[in-house]
Amino acid sequence: MLRAAAAASSLARRGIRRLSSAASPAAAGAQRQPPPLDEGDWSYHREWWGEDEGPREGEHTVFRAHSEHGNGVVSVSAYPASRPASDQWAVTERWLQERNAILYPNSTGADQFKILGYQWRVMRFNDHTRQSVAKVMACYRSSGDAGMYLMQQPHCLPVPYVKSMVSAGLTALPSCSFDLHQAASGQNNMKILCIGHGGGSLPLFLASKFRGAVVHIVEIDPVVASASVDSMGFPSLPVKGLPVDSTQPTDGNELLWGGIHDRLFLHIADAEDFVANDSNVYDIVFIDAYDGDDIFPRKLWDADGTFLKNLEKKVHPVHGTVVVNLHSDSELSVSGENNSHVESILPLGKHVSRVCRSYKQHFGLAFTAAVPWLCNITLVACRDKAITSGARLGLSRRDFVLGKLLSNTDMVEDALDLPFPCLRYIKNGFVLVE
C-alpha cells in the first residue's frame, strides 16, 4: 500500500547503476549487460498515475470485483508502458522460443512467440487507494495451446516503498551475520514470509533473486489473490479457496517461470492465525497489510497481542529480520504528550511511533527509513546482538548501525544484480528507534 507525496516537477534519473537481467530473456550464467535504465524508476510514475491525479492516458479496467474482507471494490487498471521499446522485444521472443524447445524437445519449431506489448497494471481498493503496481508482459504462441500469456516482470519494482523495503531489509540481513551470497546462489536455503500479497511483486522479486529461497505468502482476501493471477501476471499457483480455472494456457507456469513458481506458496489466511499455526522459522519477514480503509490492523502491531508474540518465535534467533511498510502521515500525536521521540522521526505520528516501539520491544533493534517521493516509511526490526557488535570508535549507536548497513550495500546490489542503488533508500531519513 502506498501514498503519493507531491512529486517534483522534474524528476531526473538518478544514479541508476544498471538494469538487472530481464525477468525472462537473460540467459542463466550470461555476463551482465549494462542497460542504462531501470524500468521501474520513479521517473515513469506518470505513466501509471497520470498528471496530478488527472486523467490517465490509455487507462482501461481489466479486473473488478467486490471483496468481503474489508477491501471494498478491488480493481486492476492497465496503462501502456514505454519501456522496453518495441525494437527490444525480439530478445524476449527468442528466449520464449528457447524455453519452449526445452519443454517440447520434439517440437518442429513451428511455434512462434510474439510479444503483444508491456503494460503497467495498478491494483486499487475502492478506486482510490493504490495497493500495488506491476509491469506485465503479454505474448501469444502461434500454434499449440491457444491463449495469451501474461508475465509479471519480477525484477521491475516500480514504486519506491518496495525498493525501500528490499534495500533496508536485505542490507540488515548480512549485518546480522546472514550469508546473502549463499542464498542468492542457491547454496544455502532461505525462508521468507510475505504478509500481504497485493499484486505479488515483492514475493516474485525475492523468489527470482534468491535461488535458495522458499517464499510463503499470506493474503486474507481471495479476491486480491485472484486479481494478481488473472490480471497482474502472477503465477497461477494452486491455492485452496481460489478458482481452479486460469485464463493462462496450461503450460504457462513452466514456460514463463522455469521453476521459480515451485518455490512460491500462497496461503489464503488471516496473518495472525497463520503465524500462530506455522512451523517454519523464517530468515526474513515482509509485512505490507493495509485494508481498503487504509488501516494497518492493530493486531499486527499490538505489543501485547498474540501476533507479535508468535512472530518473535518464528524468526531466526540470530539474524531474523522483519520489514514493515508504514504510512507516515497517520494519526498525529495529541497535544500534552511528550513529543520528543515523535518529532525526532517526523513526519511519523503517534500511531506509527507506537508501531515502531512495539516491534523494537519484541526483536531488540529497530530503525526506520523514509521512502523518497512517498508518505511511507520502512520499519526494520531485527535481533540486536550481531548488528551492534564491534568497536564503535567514538560513533553513536545510531551512526554505528547505519555504518554497518551502508557497508553492505554494494555487496547486496552485486549479489542480487539490482537495477537500483540501496544506499539512497537506507540513508533517507534514517532513524534508530529508541
Automatic annotation (TrEMBL):
SUPFAM superfamilies: S-adenosyl-L-methionine-dependent methyltransferases
Keyword Repressor set for record: no
Region (Disordered): 20-43
Entry superkingdom: Eukaryota
A GO BP entry: methylation
MF-aspect GO terms: methyltransferase activity
Amino acid composition bias (Low complexity), ranges on this chain: 20-32
Alphabetical keyword list: Methyltransferase, Transferase
UniProt-listed PANTHER family: OS04G0510700 PROTEIN, SAM-DEPENDENT METHYLTRANSFERASE SUPERFAMILY PROTEIN
Family: Belongs to the methyltransferase superfamily.
Protein name (record): Uncharacterized protein
